[in-house]
Amino acid sequence: MSQRPATRATAIDGHPIEYRIERRGGAAVLILHGGHMSARCRFGEETFLAAGQSMLVASRPGYGRTSLGAGPSAPEFAIRLAGLCRRLGLSEFTVVGISVGARTALTMAAFHPELVPRVILMCPTSFRLWPSREGRRIAYTVFAPGVERATWGTLHRMLRHDPDKHLPGIVANLTTLDGQEAVRRLGPDAEKMTEFLLRCQSSRGFLIDLRTPTDVTDDVGQPTLILATRNDGAVSFDHAEHLAATMRHATLVEVDTPTHLLWLGEGSDQTAAAIHSFMRL
Asked: Which pLDDT does position 1 carry in this prediction?
């Protein structure tokens, strides 16, 4: 497993926000990971790193060392996140929202258009109900405080003990394909998928993700690239379609990756190519 990247935490309005910044001299991107992830995880960032861009990765409220008070709602977190960006000297950046992190990215774009000239959404969750009512019932059970550590601990032990046996069953939650077929299409990236899953922790962040969001779609006027696959078993493709249909300047690019993680496996080159084209790198 690769070494966990170092992070920092700084208080904005008295509320800690955990972040990781890599200054490379190029244009800057702000990356907001999805559920069960934090700034302590380096996933979905390869295209931006390869392009030599400066990169700020922030943990959303309840994840890592970012406090719940930093953002009981996405608008509140967007205000404090903008304060962090200004403190770090970032005056303009592309905001990248991954999965449910797309809601925070869009909120950031709506509240601070002077900072955000463009938006990239990868496998995005829209502002509609997500997950389903049955999915929410399960999530409130297995990711509740005091339970989520046991949930992830069990999955992590299974993956460490016999990843070849258990990975297909776990990946089945991230794909509409058969789990075995999805792992086959991941190819050598199956190892990266295993590492991704071993990094996952929910803390209290995922329960915040389940709160009813504030829909800011009508307030986002920046050019927006939406990337999604019909093989996504975590966030259905119609979330991306809905965003593309309701946003003023959004372009939806369908890629053929095998799972929710658009940067792994077959078709991930399509993801990278679309990002490069959008940002004119």
From this structure: 63
> What sign for the dihedral angle of Cα 42, 186, 119, 24?
positive
Structure tokens at 26: 């190029």
Q: How far apart are CA 76 and CA 183, in angstroms?
A: 39
Q: How far apart are CA 268 and CA 256, in angstroms?
A: 8
User: From the CB of residue 155, how many other CB atoms can be counted at a distance below 10 Å?
Assistant: 16
- One-letter identity of residue 145: P
Model-level pTM greater than 0.70? Answer: yes
List the beta bridge partners of residue 31.
57, 96
Residue 154: CB partners within 8 Å, gap ≥ 6? none
User: Angle, to 10 degrees, between the axis of helix 179-186 and the axis of helix 190-199?
Assistant: 110
pLDDT digits (tens, 9 = 90+) for 157-197: 999 999 999 999 999 999 999 999 999 999 999 999 999 99
Question: For residue range 111-159, what is the model confidence (pLDDT) as tens digits?
Answer: 999 999 999 999 999 999 999 999 999 999 999 988 999 999 999 999 9
| CB-based burial label for 148 (10 Å; 0-12, 13-18, 19+) | buried
Q: How far apart are CA 119 and CA 222, in angstroms?
A: 7
Residue 16 gets which letter from DSSP?
A: E
78 near 107, Cβ under 8 Å? Answer: yes
Which residues have CB under 8 Å from 250's CB, separation 6+? 224, 225, 226, 243, 244
